[in-house]
Amino acid sequence: MNAHAKAQILLREDADGIATLTLNRPEARNPLSEAMLAALAETLAAIANDRSIRAVVLAAAGPVFSAGHDLKEMSARRADPDRGRAYFADILGRCSGAMQQITALPQPVIAAVEGTATAAGCQLVASCDLAVAGEAARFCTPGVHIGLFCSTPMVALSRNLSAKHAMEMLLLGEMVPAQEAARMGLVNRVVPAGEALDEARRLAAVIASKSAATVKVGKRAFYEQREMGLKAAYDNASAVMVENMLARGAEEGIGAFMEKRQPVWES
Q1: Coiled-coil region(s) at which residues (predicted)?
Q2: Is residue 134 within 8 Å of 113, Cβ to Cβ?
Q3: Of 93, 119, 136, 204, which has the fewest CB atoms closer than 10 Å, so is most exposed?
Q4: Residue 238: half-sphere exposure toward Cβ, Cα within 13 Å
């Protein structure tokens, strides 16, 4: 797919240190197709190296945030000699890679969800660092209805929700309203319908006002320690904090606090 086509299915708008990415195939319910995953991977890689970007907002055009994988695209590969095994492994690996790119991105990523986010679309929301939902938004991992347990979405869900809430979504496959999703921990806050993007950008602006280096260190440390046992997590966090204390950002921030002035962050 050429660069123009990628740009059309995934829009990018930069303003005031915030990159807003918009899934832009509303007529197809913004599927995480081959093309969409390629566009996401390429765009996230570019943002990771863009020091002018301090936060990312992920939104979608149309009434559906994302319906997940393109099942028509996947089912067509059942005609392959291996019944699609190699293709399924490849596309699921690409999807998992994009989710991990979000976690590894130096900048925090905030999902702005209006409408429905289902299956891998729900996984995408769960993979973001923060999520804002319009009050009409709904979330679902419906694979169990069609004989396809949402195993890869399960990874992101189980790292956001309690075990029983995650299993409830995975086993029942029912739509979860925005307010319930907030209670479960899938989204941070619920706003009036149509205002998710504005609220996500407001949160992004708050983050963008902080030291980019400090936010980068903190995000990386958060995900590292979460995979560790208690002692290892404290040891790792302590080592990170020592290096953070010695960094220019902490020196400036603490100095500004003691001098009762606004800090001046390095870009």
Answers
A1: none
A2: yes
A3: 93
A4: 6
pTM for the predicted model, two decimal places: 0.92
Q: Are residues 133 and 112 in the same domain?
A: yes
- Measured CA to CA, the distance from residue 243 to residue 227 in angstroms comes to 21
Hey, is 196 helix, strand or coil?
helix
Distance of CA 35 to the CA centre of its chain: 18
Task: Give residue-wise pLDDT tens across range 179-213.
Answer: 999 999 999 999 999 999 999 999 999 999 999 99
Residues whose CB is less than 8 angstroms from the CB of residue 168 and which lie 6 or more positions away in sequence, other chains included: none
pLDDT band at 249 (very low <50, low <70, confident <90, very high): confident
Task: Give a yes or no: residue 265 inside a domain.
Answer: no
CA nearest to 84, candidates 100, 72, 95, 99? 72
Shared-domain flag, residues 248 and 125: no
Q: Which residue has the tokens 């995900």?
A: 223
